Amino acid sequence: MSKHVFLTGPPGVGKTTLIQKVTQALKSSGVPIDGFYTQEVREGGRRTGFDVVTLSGNRGPLSRVSASSDSSSRREYRVGQYVVDLVSFEQLVLPMLRNVNHGGDTEKRICVIDEIGKMELFSQAFIQAVRQTLAGSGTVVLGTIPIPKGKPLDLVEEIRSRKDVKVFNVSKENRNSILQDILAAVESCRK
Questions:
Q1: How many angstroms from the chain centroid is the CA of residue 35?
Q2: What is the C-alpha separation between 1 and 12, in angstroms, rounded?
Q3: What is the 3-state secondary structure (H, E, C) of the chain?
């Protein structure tokens, strides 16, 4: 019996778009839902970074393209050309995750976590909060994880192999037809 639902697939395939569609559908049917997704930041037609956007409407930087490759000034968390703003990420995401774990609702809440990827996993506190949310009984996690590439990410592989997680593989072929299946899976997790 699944308790949580995760989407995986290559970058740019439409995982976040699907998460947003599922979120809208659940919200409009009155399901208690909170969480965050990551959004591309573009300037002059090129990607300059990513923002964290919470479902309650807060937004802050997750990462930005670093102009210099000089990272000697302070401890920098880098993924490729991006420098991760750990403080901003944690300030936005941790209170929401802690909050979702203390929901005293009788019905199960949904917690959107998009995504559990390299940038987010620099935060030990985030890893801990995600594990707690997955272990809790009152919350269904609707999240995204990257496809395996290079060195395995511990938490991602842990989630992928959990018995209580249903993983959907999103592809260009199925991304427009998979929405109802994801919604149905989330609904059955709430029962």
A1: 8
A2: 30
A3: CCCEEEEEECCCCCHHHHHHHHHHHHHHCCCCEEEEEEEEEEECCEEEEEEEEECCCCEEEEEEECCCCCCCCCCCEEECCEEECHHHHHHHHHHHHHHHHCCCCCCCEEEEEECCCCCHHHCHHHHHHHHHHHHCCCEEEEEEEECCCCCCCHHHHHHHCCCCEEEEECCCCCCCCCHHHHHHHHHHHHC
CA distance 53 to 37: 5
| pLDDT, tens digit, 9 for 90 and up, residues 146-167 | 998 888 899 999 999 999 999 9
Of 84-88, 98-102, 152-156, 176-180, the one with minimum mean pLDDT is 98-102
